[in-house]
Amino acid sequence: MKYLGTAVGAALVVLAAAGPARAQLLLQVPPEQPGPLVKEAFASAYGQALADGLGDALRNAADPACLDSKKVKTAELRQRGLDLMSKWGSRMLEQSASLIDTKAYESKLAEAGGQTASAELGRLKDDADIKHYREIERPIRLTAVLDSVFEQFDRYASTTGIKLAPVSPLAGGNDILLTKDPTEASEKALKEFIATHQSPALKRFLKLSEDAADAMTAAVSAEQAEKAGPATFFRGIESDLAEICVR
Q1: Cα 78 from chain centroid?
Q2: Residue 64: burial class (beta carbons within 10 Å; 0-12, 13-18, 19+)
């Protein structure tokens, strides 16, 4: 079972330019508020490890003379980088959500799961087993968001000549980051939970979540998705990077 695809009431928006499956972005209809979602993701151990990696990359890339002229201390770069990625990561989520035709999503979901499928998914969230399932699944979703943001950013930096070392595990091969990734442990916990909890509500929830994933994919315009990519999400970040002396 693809647990990323069965996240609570969620589905995959497959951005054509995103590359590997790890860069697929989980969204909900209606979507979660991007700001709080990204903030929660960065508050995780994995998010903090990514922030550390970004801070190191910024310290190595920033021009010392420029930092002096702007009175920016190197110790500030980790937080400045975290603020920057929170801003642009939230922007990426907003733009990704705009690719979804919500009417088409609701129609496709109704075709697959019944006319009341969307409302049923909403009600099922109050079930005790499903609440527990969502708690176990949450780290997977947060990790998927962070990986998507950094993979898209690293690709943008590479293609536009921004001289900043890649941060994402996919691009940078950071073993420390990989040890912080909670995905494998969470997926194992989900398998164990499903094996020991066979309630009708949970079974129905999982089925509707699969239907929602398919409906979400079908509700994204292929033409729009093909145009979406690093430049869509991060064009203009150069100005913010210049403020911390990364050219």
Answers
A1: 20
A2: exposed
Tell me the pTM. Answer: 0.84
* Cα–Cα distance for residue pair 87/123, rounded to 1 Å: 32
Q: Which of 241, 79, 219 is nearest to 160 (CA)?
A: 241
CB 217 within 8 A of CB 14: yes
pLDDT (tens digit per residue) in 207-226? 888 888 788 878 877 777 66
How far is the C-alpha of 67 from the C-alpha of 76, rounded, in Å? 10
Residue 14 contacts residue 216 (beta carbons within 8 Å): no
Q: What is the C-alpha separation between 88 and 200, in angstroms, rounded?
A: 41
Provide the 3-class DSSP secondary structure of residue 10.
Answer: strand
Give dist(CA 134, CA 47) in Å, integer.
19
Q: How far apart are CA 84 and CA 147, in angstroms?
A: 16
The tokens describing 115, both together, are 């006319």
Place of tokens 């995905």: 183
For the ranges 65-74, 99-108, 180-189, the lowest mean pLDDT is seen at: 99-108
φ, ψ for residue 80, nearest 5 deg: -65, -40
User: Cα(84)–Cα(42) distance, rounded to whole angstroms?
Assistant: 12
pLDDT, tens digit (0-9, with 9 covering 90-100), for 142-157: 998 898 899 889 999 9
In angstroms, the CA 78 to CA 56 distance is 7
